[in-house]
Amino acid sequence: MTGFIQRMIATAALLSTLFSALAFAGAPAETYNRANRLYAEKKYDAALKLYNSIDIKNPDLEYNRAAAYFKTGHTGKAVLHFSRALRLRPGDADTRYNLDFLRAYKTDREETKEPGVISNAFEYVINAFSLQTMSGIALVLYMATTFAGLGVIISFDMKRKKNLTQSTVLLVVVTALLFTITGARIHQFERTDRAIAIAGSVDAYDSPSDKTATVFTFHEGTEVRLGRVEGNYVHVTLVSGYSGWVDRAKLTRI
């Protein structure tokens, strides 16, 4: 059983890599490669123009775009695109390292609450594989469970039926757990209540108007959680717990 699951994981990972490669098929691949060459030649503005002309969701594209933004001095947009790259490929060590570096590099350094052991373990599990890989494994397990269940129904050999029943129960438990984790990942991926400050300085007001008192100021690259929207203003909350109303144009959703 262990070997079978390992083969399924390897197959799903291969499919995930194939899907990523197919995303760059044709014209986008040519543009992407030209942008990479320009980046290697330190022509960062020209590389950015090409990266931004590619309209697909891909972690490598987001990663390279973030690096180019950092090289051109746009810390906020670098944080934004590294964050998007990490959403598309959770657990990637290079992306996480660069994102942590930028968060330490930017003007605002906020103290964050260290998650507990259980939270860390759950976060590790749901981010162990890409969403494509987990979906592939879940699909294969579902099919295996279905076939095992059919085997129980049509088998007349009692010993074989008993073994198939035990295997089916195990597969049902594992499949249910994997579907739960995949659902958590989909929810995490689709969540759009976080944004990055892309303006150099962002004032937060007491009310949705710049005519009211400024309660605090944060800077480019700071991540916020989005709340209610009123006109051109959105209520935001920082990791530290501070909250206020800011101009929506100074933020971009992750």
Structure summary:
With 254 residues, this protein is of the alpha+beta class. The chain contains nine helices and seven strands.
Name a few traits of the molecule:
254 residues; alpha+beta; Serine Threonine Protein Phosphatase 5, Tetratricopeptide repeat; SH3 type barrels; five-stranded antiparallel beta sheet; two-stranded antiparallel ribbon; 9 helices; 7 strands; 59% helix; extended
Polypeptide structure, described:
The chain folds into three domains: 22-105, Tetratricopeptide repeat domain (Serine Threonine Protein Phosphatase 5, Tetratricopeptide repeat), CATH 1.25.40.10; 117-190; 194-253, SH3 Domains (SH3 type barrels, Roll). It has helices spanning 2-23, 27-40, 44-51, 59-71, 75-88, 93-105, 117-126, 131-154, 158-190; strands spanning 194-197, 201-205, 214-219, 223-230, 233-238, 243-247, 251-253. Helix 3 (44-51) runs antiparallel to helix 4. A five-stranded antiparallel beta sheet has the order 6-5-4-1-7. A two-stranded antiparallel ribbon has the order 2-3. The protein has 254 residues and is an alpha+beta fold. The protein has nine helices and seven strands.
CATH architecture grouping of the largest domain: Alpha Horseshoe
Percent helix range: 55-70%
The domain count comes to: 3
What is the count of DSSP helices, taking H or I runs of 4+ residues? 9
Looking at this structure, what is the CATH superfamily of the largest domain?
A: Tetratricopeptide repeat domain
Order of strands side by side in the largest beta sheet? 6-5-4-1-7
Shape: extended
The structural class is alpha+beta
Radius of gyration: 23 Å
How many strands in all?
Answer: 7
Supply the CATH class of the largest domain: Mainly Alpha
Fold-level CATH name of the largest domain = Serine Threonine Protein Phosphatase 5, Tetratricopeptide repeat
